[in-house]
Design the sequence.
């Protein structure tokens, strides 16, 4: 069900130093670093920390969270997106490939009614799906 999740940090450098150390003793390490976000895990980035935005739902004291839900395939990602937008969800990213994550990463991102960033993701999609 849960593919990955992330939190926003007021000070990314301080949080990175913290998570590098505390997750390191548990056997986890940085799997990806995309400057504004760092993914930790053991083989794949399952937990992310990111820069807290200056504006919007994630900028206040109650920061948004990010949850990536596992989708069976690209069609399921599109169905998630269609269902969410039909309910009035704000679109963050329409369904597409995200090659900056990896070549077969296909996802869609929306805001839930509380302002959280929720995503459906499939890791096996191929161009043309």
Sequence:
């Amino acid at each position: 069900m849960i593919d990955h999740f992330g939190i926003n940090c007021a000070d990314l450098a301080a949080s990175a130093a913290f998570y590098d150390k505390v997750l390191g003793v548990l056997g986890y390490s940085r799997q990806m670093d995309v400057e504004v976000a760092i993914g930790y895990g053991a083989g794949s980035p399952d937990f992310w920390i990111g820069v807290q935005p200056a504006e919007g739902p994630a900028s206040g004291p109650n920061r948004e969270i990010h949850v990536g839900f596992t989708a069976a395939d690209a069609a399921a990602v599109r169905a998630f997106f269609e269902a969410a937008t039909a309910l009035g969800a704000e679109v963050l990213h329409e369904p597409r490939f995200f090659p900056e994550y990896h070549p077969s990463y296909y996802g869609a991102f929306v805001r839930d009614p509380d302002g959280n960033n929720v995503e459906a993701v499939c890791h096996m999609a191929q161009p043309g799906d």
The chain has a mean pLDDT of 88. Residues 104 and 125 are 5 Å apart (CA to CA). Residues 1-51 form a domain with the 2,3-Dihydroxybiphenyl 1,2-Dioxygenase; domain 1 fold (CATH 3.10.180.10). The first strand starts at residue 2 and ends at 9.
